[in-house]
Amino acid sequence: MVVLGMVILTSLAFDFTNGFHDTANAMATSIATGALKPKTAVALSAVLNLIGAFLSVQVALTVTNSVIRIQDSTGAPDAQLTANGGSALLLIVLAGLVGAIIWNLLTWLLGLPSSSSHALFGGLIGATIAGLGFSAVKWVGTDTKLDGVVGKVILPALLSPVIASVVAMTSTWVIYKVTKKVTEKFRNDGFRWGQIGSASLISLAHGMNDAQKTMGIITLALIASGQWHDLHAVPLWVKGACATAIALGTFIGGWRIIRTLGKGLVEIDSPQGLAADSASAATIIVSSHLGFALSTTHVATGSIIGTGLGRKGAQVRWAVALRMLVAWLITLPSAGLVAAMTWAIGHFIGGLAGAVVIFVILIGGAGYMFVHSRKNPVGHHNVTDEWDGGAGEALPAAPAKTAKEVAR
Amino acid sequence: MSQVWLALQAGVQVLFAALLLGAGLPAIFALGMRSLAYGAGGTAEVAMDSKPRPIGKVLAAVCFGVVVAAILLGITWIVATGMGYSLVFDHLLPSFRKK
């Protein structure tokens, strides 16, 4: 029971990091072009994520099925893992979540927009390999179905930024062509509204897609420990808790990542913001409808690069893009490695004590990174400062503290 | 290799649908902005010397209307699908049908 409680808390913590890690995907461009004030932007995004999470009524219980084999096709957990109150399954899920959260926090500290879904899948895969061996991971799908780590994670991650950037590039090119005879001020004022609309759509789609992953994992843990039996529904309190966690995370705002995406990659104007945001929204919504699983982060980054390529004279900072690419490549294995080590620690200490130790490690690691982030804070006050320096200078120089901030 | 082939097929589908929506709707929005500037005249246009032309505002309203309608329809469609309904068009009017 205590372990189940920790799994639920850790899931919600992951959902929270998922929220603030991905605020940038929807709102970075609107903040960068000044279409929305930073605080307004995160508040709007948070509300839409909340609504989106409640609208996502599809049962996401089988979310882990595409990469690991701990459930059957109906979503029921494997019988051998549910013995003894489901402790084997709970430990795998707990360790997986810890790996995902640690990786999400580390990339946030570095201001890198890495994919939360890759972190989650990576964590679960790592914990599964450690706990059940390589054969419990579904690496590739069948000849007729796109599935497994390759089909559901790696290939979509390679294709989705390309798709998004082609769409954004086309859109940018068309927009500037059509509005060539409109003065810049008139154009920018109008496009701000369109930008807000398209950014809102991304937030809504994000709430619908991402919150249900956590809902599925909590429900799976409840079923494994015998607290819930319905394979076709998510308990209402789980839905409410997940929706709230992702919305709160979004509201806190991952300012470091917003800065990198909004200011670091390309300097953008409102029409480009609209082009990038509509390309992201369309790609995410279309692909989730077609069942082609992709990461919001990869799509948003691809769109922003695309809009830089589509406008004559705009420059893409490839050094920053390269740094992101590296982060994407190592997200899955890194989260997996952390999760595998976490599982090992939990397993060898064993039982309740093992789970408690893991939980304490997570809190310690998260606390350390939070303290570290305070040395060079990025917030709504400096998120749109001029981007000086290259790839390594992702964060603004530590600003002199104003009297107001010191007083806080 | 079949996985790569399947992913490419799915990717091409996503690309075309996303191009239609993600570049098509912004293009209509841009046309709306162009019409609005045409309607406003004066400093809204690079030429800077034209008088206001009311027809531009009408055209702009049509363009923006199409964009908003498409988005609302899209959201309705997604939510309806999620709740197990399908959106069908009877004589051009959208209505819901339980799956």
Query: Secondary-structure element order of chain B, as H and E?
Result: HHHEE
Mean pLDDT of chain A: 86
Low-pLDDT windows of residues of chain B? none
Structural class of chain A: mainly alpha
Largest interface by Cβ-Cβ < 8 Å: A-B, 59 and 44 residues
Counted beta strands of chain A: 0
Number of strands of chain B: 2
State the assembly state of the protein chains.
heterodimer
Task: Give me the secondary-structure topology.
The complex is a heterodimer of chains A (408) and B (99).
Chain A: H1 2-33, H2 38-55, H3 79-109, H4 116-132, H5 148-178, H6 184-224, H7 236-252, H8 255-264, H9 270-290, H10 296-310, H11 318-349, H12 351-373, H13 403-407
Chain B: H1 2-22, H2 24-40, H3 54-82, E1 85-90, E2 93-98
Antiparallel strand pairs in B: 1-2
Descriptors:
heterodimer, A: 408 residues, mainly alpha, disordered C terminus, B: 99 residues, alpha+beta, two-stranded antiparallel sheet, 2 strands, 12% strand, flat
Q: How does this model look, in words?
A:
The complex is a heterodimer of chains A (408) and B (99). Chain A has 408 residues and is mostly helical. Chain A has one domain (2-379). Chain A is 72% helix and 0% strand. Chain A contains 13 helices and no strands. The longest helix of chain A has 41 residues, at 184-224. The two termini of chain A are 39 Å apart. Chain B is of the alpha+beta class and 99 residues long. Chain B has one domain (2-98). Chain B has three helices and two strands, in the order αααββ. In chain B, a hairpin with a 2-residue loop joins β1 and β2. The radius of gyration of chain B is 20 Å and the shape is flat. Chains A and B meet through α5, α6 and α9 of A and α1, α2 and α3 of B.
Précis, in short:
The complex is a heterodimer of chains A (408) and B (99). Chain A has 408 residues and is mostly helical. Helices cover 72% and strands 0% of the residues of chain A.
